[in-house]
Amino acid sequence: MNHWGRTAVTGLLLAGLVSSSQAQSRPEPEESVEQLQEKVRDLNRQLEEAKKALAESQKEDQQAEQEASQAETMQQELDRIEASPKIGPITFGGAIRANYIYGDYVDTGGPSRGSDGGNFELDTFRINADLLYGNIVGKAEYRWYNGYNFFHTAWLGYNFEDDSQVQVGLNRVPFGAGPYGVSQSWFFDQSYYVGLADDMDLGIKYLFNLGDTELALAYYYSAQPNGLGYTDHAARYDSDMVRNDEGVGYEERNQVNARIIQPIEWDEGITTDLGASFQIGQLINKGDADEGEDGTAYATAVHAVNQIHNWKLALQLTYYNYDIDGSDLINRGFYDFYADIATEGWIPAVSLSYYKETPDILWLDYVIPYIEYSSIMKNGETADGASFKDSDLFTIGAAWAHNGWYIYTEYAYSNGNSFVGGDPYNNFGANLDATWEGRFNINFGYYF
């Protein structure tokens, strides 16, 4: 090939290489806006699915941790029960409790009150026995306080195959959101002081379920029997209608109770126990109190206990009426002293608490901080025409648990509670003074 031929071939080869290089370096066609938007939407969907999967995994881990912690607590309680002394099918236990009290008031001689100087005193000593023999069950508890003692509980029962239960004897009246009203505190809420929480009466109670719905029906012949103490009729745990030491007053008879609670599960760990309670009974006039006629006692309440994971919000609204002639006050007896209460009123009550497990603290199993409010909003007036004043109670504190120890530390602030300053015989009644006073209380309890 001559020079010009070689030059022509070389030129053709260079042109091909340049053309190939330009073809290889050319950018791909751009994606449309719609295609890019679809990709973004797809990536967002994947991101949301990843977030949900992560949240579900964390939720399952948290639920598993809570269940493991609850199982450990239940196992500790089971170990404690199994370690209790037994005789055949009867398991024995008990508790001893003491109070440190500091009140910003002068001691006026009321029950378990302390003074403005602070003091330490025995709260209670108790012995209890639990029976389980096949389907036969039972419970008995006797308590000693400073100067008086009594049976707190004494009943026999039967567990049926459908998980229903009957109790006969001195048992807890089914009224309100729980055994202690809405309260988590040592002071309870104001419902207790008018006889509508943690009330133990003598009769028969039937507990059963219809599906998820929990029901209780009961008949009580009388209030808790009197124990041994300084007074003739007030040596007892409950706030009951009683005669005074002169034999004048009313006694409870033939009371009927009904309660319904509907559990509702909103989401995992979020539930509500929605319920209503009702009771009606006779008031038998003894010693010709007031106009000498018998009366009628009735009360009703709506309540809801809301559990939001470890938070608990308990609410209750109660109306009560001890319908007697001639007076807007009625005598009650409890803790070995007498006190008048208003015969009619409304009681709103609320409790907010948080349950915190403490696995990293050797001396503490769990703690429950709480804040509570309740009030007796009264209808009534004195013989002089002065309207009764409401009785409010605020409580803030915490309950601390470890093994057999259960300790309350709390501050109660009230303008109408016989355990927190003021006139111990009038706070739940006319309460004309209505002075706000406070009490700091530590209750040390050891349960065995």
Automatic annotation (TrEMBL):
Residues 52-62 have a biased composition (Basic and acidic residues). The lineage of its organism: Bacteria, Pseudomonadati, Verrucomicrobiota, Opitutia, Puniceicoccales. Keywords: Signal. The keyword Nucleus does not apply. SUPFAM superfamilies: Porins. This is Carbohydrate porin. InterPro entries: Porin_dom_sf (IPR023614). Residues 52-77 are annotated as: Disordered. Residues 1-23 form the signal peptide. Residues 65-76 have a biased composition (Low complexity).
